[in-house]
Amino acid sequence: MSYVRTFLPWIVFAVIPSAQWQWGALAALVAAVAVIVQQRRAGAGFDALIIETGSALFFAALAAVAFADPRSAVHGYSAALSSATLALIAAVSLLIRRPFTLGIAKRTTPREVWGLRPFVRANTVITAVWTAAFALTAGVLALLAHAGQGHSTAATAVQVAGFVVPMLFTSRYVASLRTEAGAR
User: Where does the chain cross the membrane (predicted)?
Assistant: First the structure.
């Protein structure tokens, strides 16, 4: 459930019709800010809100561009830019050795596990998979946009796969780690 909350702004942006992209960007910005406020009130630190904070910044910029020029060329590439932004945020979180999934995992993991090497390593692997999925999705969406298919059924399928595949990996990987730990 925490992944759905984390990516809620992106889901909001994806479900609003492309013709109203400026309103989609604004709604996604509102969703990002609402998630950040709600999570901060619940006690989450900014380390657990890496994607949410990056999302708010991205959608603020996208909304500004979209309202300033609704016919901007950015529109055709907005889905690719969204995935590229997520890839960048996730990659930076890896580079600074604070995988974005670490903050999410801490919400459901006992505090005594947080500093353990296997926990950090597992989150590094999971974040790397999400980063690769976002980057691959961005590349395919950019190719589709360049071919004039940026808002097609194929583009939608690519976007969905870009979230579903790493989600499935995450759940299966965590389950296998728990099974392994239980066997020890």
Answer: 20-37, 49-68, 74-96, 125-148, 154-175
- DSSP label at residue 152: S
Rounded Cα distance between 108 and 2, Å, is 9
CA nearest neighbour of 8 among 64, 59, 61, 63: 59
CB burial string 120-129: b at 16+ within 10 A, e below: bebbbbbbbb
Claim: this prediction has a pTM higher than 0.85: yes
Residues 6+ away with beta carbon under 8 Å from 182: none
Using the 8-state DSSP alphabet, how is residue 92 labeled?
Answer: H
Residues ≥6 apart with Cβ < 8 Å to 166: 126, 129, 130, 133
Instruction: Round to whole Å and give the CA distance between 130 and 114.
Output: 20
Q: What is the DSSP string of 57-117?
A: HHHHHHHHHHHH-TT-GGGGGHHHHHHHHHHHHHHHHHHTT--HHHHHHHTTS-GGGTT-H
**C-alpha radius of gyration, the chain, whole number:** 17
User: How does pLDDT run across 15-69, given as a tens digit for each residue?
Assistant: 888 888 999 999 999 999 999 999 999 888 887 788 899 999 999 999 999 999 9
Angle subtended by helix axes 50-68 and 21-41, to nearest 10: 150
The DSSP 8-state label assigned to residue 148 in this structure reads T
